Task: structure prediction
Amino acid sequence: MSQPSPKPQQIPVVVLAGFLGSGKTTLLNHLLHRSGGSRIGALVNDFGAIEIDAMAVAGALGDSTVSLGNGCLCCAVDASELDQYLERLAQPSLGIDVIVIEASGLAEPQELVRMLLASEHPGVVYGGLVEVVDAAEFDDTRARHPEIDRHLALADLVVVNKLDRAADGERVLGLVRSLVDRAAVVPASYGRIDPEFLFDCRPGEERIGQLSFDDLHEDDPREDHPCEDGRTEGDSGDHPHHHAGHLHAAYDSLSFVSPDPLDPRRLMTFLDSRPEGLYRIKGYVDFGPYDVRNRYAVHAVGRFLRFYPEPWPAGGERLTQLVLIGSGIDAPALGKELEACRSEAPHADDHGMWGVLRYVRGPEEDLADPA
Result:
C-alpha cells in the first residue's frame, strides 16, 4: 500500500498557556535551566521572537526581546506574521531543538493553536498545548475567568502549579481532572516538571541507549525563580530548592525494546486506552511489512499524539524503542500490554495502518481536528 513520504526533521512548537500568575514564566525558566543540553527557542509572553540558549537565565534576556506592540500574541499577529517569527528560530544555523510559545495571560489558546496549525513553515510542527493553573487560586480564577474550563478541555497536558500553597490540593487536582479531555494532569510546585514531558533532552555526552534520561542538574539553592508579577517564588522565606535527588525520581518510567515489529492495530488499541497518569510516550516503532522503508517516530504528550515516518538509518538494527513516563502507572502491566502488540505476520493487510496514518497529518487535516 502507498505510504507517506518521509519529511525533513521538524522543530516541535509547544504552546505554554495559563492565566496571569499561574507560573508560566517560572515554568519556562525551569525548562531553560533543566533542558539537558537541548536548545530552546521562545516566543515569550507579549513579545516577539527571541533565541535563547537552553542554559541561559530567563531574567537575562534583556534587550533581545522584540515588542509586538499591542500585547496579546493571538491578537497582535496573524498566521503569516507568526511564521516570520518562527522563521527566525527555525534557521538550521541556530540549532534549535524545540520552540516554546509562552502565551500572554489573556491569550486565547485555541487561536494560537489554530495559527500554528495553519503555519506554512516546513521547518516546524505543532507539539501540543500545555495549560498551567494556579492550584491555590484555582477557584477564584474559575469565578473570574469561566473560560478556563474550555481551555482545560483543549489542553494536551495540564500543570497544576503551586500545590505547595494550596490548602486542599487533592481536591483541586480532582476537579481539574474532571474538566480535561484525556489530557495528562501533572502536579507541580515552583513550575518544576520534567522537561522530558514536553521534548527530548539532548544528551550532554555520549551514552549507550538513545532513549535514556539525561541526569538533570540539581538546583542552585541560592537561585530564585521570577514569577510573572516580578516577585520570586522563594519570597515567602521557604526556599523551594533545598532538596536532594533528581526531579524525574518522582515519576515512573518504562523502557520497551522489541526486535519484532509491532502490529499497528494492536498498538493503536494500546495508545487509545493509555491510562491517566501516563504523561509522555516517545521513541520509534517498527511496523515491519506495513512499511519496510520507514520507522515511525512517536510523540505523545497527554492526549496529543503524532507519528512521523522517517527512513531507517542505513545499516542499523531495526528495533522498536519506546519510553513511557508517568506517575502512578503500573509499569509491568504496561510492559505486558506492549509485548502483546508484537507481530510476526509476514504480510501486511490493506487497512492495518489506517489507525496510525490518522496521526500522520498535514496542515489541512490538523486544522479540522486540533486535538
Q: What stands out?
A: The two ends are 27 Å apart (CA to CA). The first strand starts at residue 11 and ends at 17. Confidence is low (pLDDT under 50) at residues 46-76, 204-249, 363-371. Residues 89 and 169 are 38 Å apart (CA to CA).
